[in-house]
Amino acid sequence: METAQPEADERSPLLNAEPRSEGTLVEKPQENQSRWRSIRVMYLTMFFSSIGFSIVVSSIWPFLQKVDKTADASFLGWVIAVYSLGQMIASVLFGAWSNYRPRREPLIISILINVAANILYGYAHAPPSHNKYYMLLARAFVGFGAGNVAVVRSYVAGATSLQERNSAMANISACQALGFILGPALQTALTSIGQTGVSWKMIDLEFNMYTAPAFLGAFLGIINIILIIAVFREHHITELERARCINVNIQGSSEMLENSDGDIDLVAVVTCNVLFFVTLFAFAIFETIATPLTMDMYAWTGKQAVLYNGLLLVGVGVESIVVFMTTKILSKRFEDRLLLLGGFVIILVGFFILLPWGNQYPQIQWTEIKNGSNYSSAEIKYRGSSIVTWNFLTQPSHNLNAVAVGCPVQQVWCQYIPIIHLAQYILSVILIGVGYPICNVISYTLYSKVLGPKPQGIYMGWLTASGSGARTLGPAFVGQVYPRYGPRWTFGPLCGMVMAATILVVLMYKRLIGFSVRCLTLQQ
User: Fold this and answer.
1) Is the Cα dihedral 474, 317, 437, 167 positive or negative?
2) pLDDT value at position 304?
3) Residue range 457-467: average pLDDT?
4) What is the dihedral of CA 480, 484, 486, 488, to 10 degrees?
5) In the chain, what are the domains?
6) DSSP conformation class of 3
7) What pLDDT, on the 0 to 100 scale, is given for residue 108?
8) How far, CA to CA in Å, does 119 sit from each of 148, 184, 279, 322?
9) What is the pTM of this model?
10) CA separation for the pair 165, 156 (Å, rounded)
11) Residue 26 pLDDT class (50, 70, 90 cuts)
12) DSSP state of 407
């Protein structure tokens, strides 16, 4: 009768047992401590990267409008998407780099790029013209620097045993979620600086609620570099898993495992990339649309949208950490595949709830029709539909600082698409906050198990690139579809995509297994 082995953790040296005939790795306590210190530095790297992304997300739109009046909602989609485009390109490059050189090199270079890009973002107001393109360039290089996520994941996958990996990957996701909590929380706190803030003309510095987060991101990057230089060391332990599989004595299978890629199920690898793409695509749409959607639906000002959505994202971050910790527990009782399937179902329900219904319509920014003219109530007839009566501004505003709120009149759908009720929006946020972290952590944990002990830098680069591609296409999709066709055509196709991913998990269920499980299958 087999005795259950205790779960490995960072307090016990890895495989600290007597050597066996198939060979084992005996890890000294000092090596164990060094290995886990290095893994914790990777946790912090993911945490800082997450803060650098999330701390400006809810303020990009009002800051873009402030620095360049020619920017519209479509350009906002590209400003958000270009971050992920840069990350997609860099992920493969940094992943390949980490396979052949010390990981410290791509980590430090990527973070230096990130620091410089954050400073450029903080100075996007300085050029005399075309400021929106400087914001675009800054976000592209911030994303390029964030390509080190592939290096972080590949290192943790290679520095942990199978028993440790679920926990370590969940910790990475928890640190990422904590960054998503503190990022919006810090942005919300920095709104107290105001839109004007303080300035230093000698160096053309404007320190306000929009630029302060970028400068803080640059400062955290410098701290990250110091930690990598002082604490981080390379550790590799996954060779043991390959050695055990190679020792399986069945009709030449060991030679195949040692000398070819036959041990990797490429269909499962592609499937994991597709599922990760859908997960990130869905969440990217949610992140991108939150501020403009709430400004249109609930007539919030830019400052209110930043504040309220920041608080909601903080709540989602707290919720995500709870879900990550719960997933660590559930993964001991349920298969990764089953958890992944459940996560997609929850995301599907979350976005389905966002489909608008009812007979209440958004407030319209009628002041944009003709500035300064007198208007009373009017009747609008759209494509032969029933007449809808709208009440709008009857006198021109004499307050030069007044801000137009509501759904822009250029978005014709505002006249016939009902609003998404606030209760719908909050319930959707809660459900997405449960489903997304489950799919996120299980996707790349399962992916690392499918890959097994091979160097995972390039493969993790492809996984990160697929996620970055989703973060590129998601905002671009929102920027093109939402202003023209509204929330129905934004969330409807997304529900179809998530449903297709759910069906894909069911169809590929038997192939989504780890490397070691495949070895046991061969042995039998």
Assistant:
1) positive
2) 85
3) 78
4) -80
5) 31-359+419-523 (1.20.1250.20)
6) P
7) 93
8) 19, 19, 31, 34
9) 0.68
10) 8
11) low
12) E
